[in-house]
């Protein structure tokens, strides 16, 4: 049976804050109320996830569940825009929570000071309507993929490397899942990767927009499509991707 | 016939360029093209695309004219087709 949810209405303050996006055709008050009554899980709030979180907080998503471990180090500061120089050596997730609350004090935040793992993934996914994955390791991404397929939650998978990035929206039962794309662990991937904050931020904004569209019903999503971008020559390509009939996760 | 091959991410670095124009025989399929590339490129290419036993690594995405294609597809590649070989990425 589908969950019946009490829809909270927009307050006068919210109508004022979101005034300019309420004018977007196909969105309006109805779309804004859907965002207000929605929750998004973001796996890691680094270069990519921090900008996803910031955009979703700005857009008026009601609840963010944020998983990000560790303390701020100098090399975070070229891209992890929710960290600050003054926060060096201190908890990343505390910085994330504080910066988001400065922007949107109405936002409900579930802040987890650890990365996605076997022990927390099921509970965190269960709290979310949509998941955005921005983790830098395939192990974490495969774990998230397995759980969203099990719980039938939409996953926006965003990734980058150097000046390139890619994004797809996974709808369990309808589209290819991450394990359809990568049936085995990629061996060439290394934890440390070349990155400009402007590149991770670009794909983060695309990821945030995908989440907004999934939640509000606005526009068309990247379901079944992989958008690739290379900011070295500003080329964008939308590729058609296939379900793997022998996928060990979703088939 | 000439086929354009494009590369992404670590493959671009391994080969030293973003794209290449290769000369192959008519009637070739995607597997034949990858085996051809394996002969003309350095070991860095093979290290990403093939495992130690010489088997294709399924985590590498293959795109023919904008659509994903399987390594074992029998579809013939035609002149002026564009193949993109994508190295998996997970940066966040």
CATH superfamily of chain A: NAD(P)-binding Rossmann-like Domain
CATH overall fold name of chain B: Ubiquitin-like (UB roll)
Report the CATH superfamily of chain B. Beta-grasp domain
- Overall mean pLDDT score of chain A? 96
Task: State the major sheet of chain B.
Answer: 5 strands, mixed
Strand order of the largest sheet of chain B: 2-1-5-3-4
Task: Report strand % of chain A.
Answer: 15-25%
Distance between the termini of chain B: 40 Å
At CATH level 3, the topology of chain A is: Rossmann fold
User: How many domains of chain B, as an integer?
Assistant: 1
Q: Please give the largest β-sheet of chain A.
A: 8 strands, mixed
The quaternary structure here is heterodimer
Radius of gyration of chain B: 12 Å
The CATH class designation of chain B is Alpha Beta
List low-confidence stretches of chain A: none
Distance between the termini of chain A: 23 Å
Description:
Chain A has 251 residues and is an alpha/beta fold. Chain A has nine helices and eight strands. Chain A has helices spanning 12-17, 19-22, 28-36, 49-59, 92-103, 121-126, 138-151, 178-181, 197-216; strands at 39-43, 63-67, 108-112, 130-133, 154-161, 164-170, 225-230, 235-240. In chain A, helix 4 (49-59) runs parallel beside helix 5 (92-103) and helix 4 crosses helix 9. Chain A starts with 11 loop residues before the first helix and ends in an 11-residue tail after the last strand. Chain B is of the alpha+beta class. Chain B has a single domain (2-86), classed as Ubiquitin-like (UB roll), CATH 3.10.20.30. Helices cover 27% and strands 24% of the residues of chain B. The N and C termini of chain B lie far apart (40 Å). Classes of the chains: A alpha/beta (251), B alpha+beta (92).
């Amino acid at each position: 049976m589908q969950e019946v949810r009490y829809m909270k209405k927009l307050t006068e303050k919210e109508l004022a804050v979101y005034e300019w996006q309420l004018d977007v055709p196909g969105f309006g008050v109805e779309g804004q109320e859907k965002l207000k009554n929605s929750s998004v899980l973001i796996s890691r709030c680094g270069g990519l996830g921090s900008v996803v979180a910031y955009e979703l907080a700005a857009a008026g998503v009601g609840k963010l569940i944020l998983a990000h471990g560790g303390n701020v180090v100098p090399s975070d500061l070229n891209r992890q825009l929710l960290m600050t120089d003054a926060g060096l050596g201190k908890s990343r997730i505390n910085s994330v929570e504080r910066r988001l609350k400065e922007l949107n004090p109405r936002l409900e935040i579930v802040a987890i000071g650890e990365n996605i793992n076997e022990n927390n993934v099921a509970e965190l996914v269960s709290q979310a309507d949509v998941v955005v994955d921005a983790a830098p390791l395939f192990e974490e991404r495969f774990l998230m993929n397995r759980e969203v397929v099990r719980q039938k939650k939409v996953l926006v998978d965003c990734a980058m490397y150097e000046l390139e990035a890619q994004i797809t929206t996974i709808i369990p039962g309808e589209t290819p899942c991450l394990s359809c794309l990568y049936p085995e662990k990629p061996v060439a991937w290394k934890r440390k990767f070349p990155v400009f904050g402007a590149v991770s931020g670009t794909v983060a904004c695309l990821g945030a927009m995908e989440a907004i569209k999934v939640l509000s019903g606005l526009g068309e999503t990247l379901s079944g499509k992989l958008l690739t971008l290379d900011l070295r020559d500003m080329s964008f390509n939308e590729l058609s991707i296939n379900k793997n009939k022998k996928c060990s996760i979703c088939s | 016939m000439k086929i354009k091959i494009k590369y992404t991410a670590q493959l671009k670095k391994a080969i030293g360029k973003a794209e290449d124009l290769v000369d192959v025989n008519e009637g070739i399929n995607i597997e034949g093209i990858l085996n051809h590339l394996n002969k003309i490129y350095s070991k860095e290419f093979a290290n990403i695309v093939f495992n130690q036993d010489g088997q294709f690594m399924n985590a590498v995405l293959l795109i023919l004219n904008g659509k994903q294609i399987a390594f074992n597809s029998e579809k013939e590649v035609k002149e002026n087709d564009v193949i993109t070989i994508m190295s998996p990425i997970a940066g966040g």
